[in-house]
Amino acid sequence: MPPEGSRSLVIVLHGGLGNAERIVSQRSEAGLNMDTTADKYGFIVAYMNGTPVARMLGDDKKGWNAGECCGMSSANNIDDVRYISGAIQFLARSYGINPRQVYGMGHSNGAMMTLRLMCETDLLAAAVPISGALEIEAATCPPARGKNILAIRGTGDENVPMSGGKGKGVSNTNFRSQGYTRRIFANSGARYTLLVLPGAEHRLDTIESAMEKAEGISVAEKAARFFGLNH
Amino acid sequence: MKATSLKLAGVAMFAALSAPAGAAGGDTSLKYGERTLYVHVPPGCPRKGRDRS
């Protein structure tokens, strides 16, 4: 484990209708569980919770205000940027984390939130958004200059289509496209890499299977390597 | 239960810890604001000594 002050942190953001508990217990979005990989390479992981995303579905169905998505989190303009910023500062102080070595990953609505953080803040050194696009109107994202983003998408994603538009999910969002996302970050001087997985759908288990098939590694391992934490 | 309060952008936020400070490795659930977050710490990485206000 690196000495205090030089430790790395990966924050993990669940998808819409998900929550951190489910990822930790691997009941859903298990591909976002970084525990084994963190033990292997010696970094800290924080699984964060959004806020209740739909009035009728229960408080355990959470989401993030990624801008135009999702649900009550967006409609009520919950300040998730501020919340995550504060949580990272708190964790950095508590665990001796280098604030320059904080990385983000998320799925679906969590990917959208990760991209919003990359666009609007200097919190994250790099990001791996999975199955999501940037859902804010932005000309550029100045904080992203020089930073690395690996966007992972499935060709069969019908919930958040790569080409944008309304998907088959329940959010009723008119999603922005992968092309828009790439253009904004590229125009901002970020290194934006798109990894398209043939046959993968929106669900994370299909992404995980396609990643194993394509590269022989898990999503967690792929993210750790992309962040440069595999040493 | 230990507690930490900190100020962020002029607004006090409250973090309550449900695991002992200094625990070596494993999983910890924390309250930051009104939300729970979960931290996984590899073995050999103690949390810093005491919570601060």
Would you summarize the structure shown here?
The complex is a heterodimer of chains A (231) and B (53). Chain A has 231 residues and is of the alpha/beta class. Chain A contains 8 helices and 10 strands.
What is the average of the pLDDT values of chain A? 96
Q: Order of strands across the widest beta sheet of chain B?
A: 1-2-3-4
- Listing every helix as H and every strand as E from the N terminus to the C terminus, the arrangement of chain A reads EHHEEEHHEHEEEEHEHH
What's the total number of strands of chain B?
4
* Unreliable sequence segments of chain A: none
CATH class of chain A: Alpha Beta
Pick out the low-confidence regions of chain B.
Answer: 1-24, 49-53
- How much of the residues of chain B is beta strand, in percent? over 45%
> Structural class of the secondary elements of chain B?
mainly beta
Distance between the termini of chain A: 11 Å
Q: How would you classify the quaternary structure?
A: heterodimer
- Compute the number of strand runs of chain A: 10
Order of helices and strands of chain B: EEEE
Description:
- The complex is a heterodimer of chains A (231) and B (53).
- With 231 residues, chain A is of the alpha/beta class.
- Chain A has helices at 20-24, 35-41, 71-75, 80-95, 109-120, 178-187, 204-215, 219-227, and strands at 7-13, 44-48, 51-52, 62-63, 97-107, 126-130, 148-154, 165-166, 174-175, 191-197.
- A 6-stranded parallel sheet of chain A has the order 2-1-5-6-7-10, sandwiched between helices. Chain A has a two-stranded antiparallel sheet with strand order 3-4. In chain A, strands 8-9 form a two-stranded antiparallel ribbon.
- The termini of chain A are close together.
- With 53 residues, chain B is mostly beta strands.
- Helices cover 0% and strands 66% of the residues of chain B.
- Chain B has no helices and 4 strands.
- Chain B has strands spanning 2-8, 11-17, 24-32, 35-46.
- A 4-stranded antiparallel sheet of chain B has the order 1-2-3-4, with no helix packed on it.
- Chain B starts with a strand and ends in a 7-residue tail after the last strand.
- The model of chain B is unreliable at 1-24 and 49-53 (pLDDT under 50).
- Chains A and B meet through helix 1, helix 2, strand 2 and helix 4 of A and strand 1 and strand 4 of B.
- Strand 2 of chain A pairs antiparallel with strand 4 of chain B, so a sheet runs across the interface.
